[in-house]
Design goal:
single chain; alpha/beta; 11 helices; two-stranded antiparallel sheet; disordered N terminus
């Protein structure tokens, strides 16, 4: 199936993550393995350690992981989660991601860590997953669905490629179900979208697709904690970014991080780990 980038929002996300500024920022500040919200033990814990703890916690929920399991990571970024799963469980992983620049880093790290035989890095958008029906045991995603202009379509694709009885484990920064209208507009402007998902949206849509909700671990307090931690790391290491990331990008990033922190602290946003099973 050919990859389609015919939607402007999808193309905007692809161009952003393909940009030299974004690639260098995430690689330097996050450490080049993960680009997602961490589970922090304290406010000053290294971002990479907290990010890896999220991966560990998500994988601990699964009952499918093992050498015979096949996993799809939708929006895999630099592939840190896929490498963790391959190393720990010996499973095969399809790391689907729309940024060719990130994917090249991903492939190189897979080779360096000796797991390239277990991980297939796929240049594609998760609105059009280039796999047959029912081939995966587990569909996984971390903080990626918010970038889609059609999240219902993404969930339909996740359901399509997941076998009956398979697991769907994901996180996503969400608008709280009771969020007042208009208050998160600065965040929406930052990610170039009109809406964010909500817990009720994911629950209802996946119920309609035949999924059973096993659990939702609410870690909402970690969202502003994480973005605040990234903001402080950016301030601390801003000099390291000179020559790699433009001053304009850094200023926009600071403003964007502040909006995420403010929205989280005011209760407008929520975040946690969803675990569903397909009927």
């Amino acid at each position: 199936m050919a990859t389609r980038y015919d939607d402007q929002a999808i193309e905007t996300a692809r161009q952003y993550y393909n940009s030299e500024d974004a690639d260098n920022f995430y690689a330097i500040i996050w450490g080049g393995e993960d680009i997602h919200i961490g589970l922090y033990n304290d406010d000053e814990e290294p971002i990479a350690d907290a990010s890896r703890r999220t991966v560990e916690r998500m994988s601990s929920l699964s009952r499918q992981l093992g050498p015979d399991s096949y996993v799809l990571d939708m929006g895999a970024g630099y592939g840190g989660s896929a490498r963790y799963l391959a190393h720990k469980y010996g499973c095969k992983v399809a790391a689907l991601n729309l940024s060719e620049r990130e994917n090249e880093r991903d492939r190189q790290m897979n080779k360096e860590q000796g797991v390239d035989h277990l991980i297939e890095v796929v240049d594609a958008a998760f609105e059009d997953v280039p796999y047959d029906d029912g081939v995966f045991d587990l569909v996984w995603s971390q903080d990626s669905f918010l970038h889609s202009p059609d999240r219902e379509r993404v969930l339909r694709e996740a359901s399509r490629v997941l076998r009956s009885g398979g697991e769907f484990i994901f996180t996503d920064p969400m608008q709280a179900d009771d969020c007042p209208e208009g208050v998160i507009q600065p965040i929406l402007d930052r990610i170039h979208l009109e809406t964010m998902g909500t817990p009720n949206f994911y629950r209802q849509t996946l119920r309609d697709l035949g999924f059973e909700e096993i659990t939702f671990e609410d870690h909402t307090h970690q969202l502003p904690r994480h973005y605040g931690r990234v903001r402080r790391e950016l301030d601390r290491r801003e000099g390291d970014l000179q020559g790699h990331v433009s001053a304009e990008y850094i200023e926009r990033m600071k403003n964007g991080l502040d909006h995420w922190v403010n929205g989280g602290n005011k209760g407008y946003l929520t975040w946690g780990i969803f675990y569903f099973r397909k009927g």
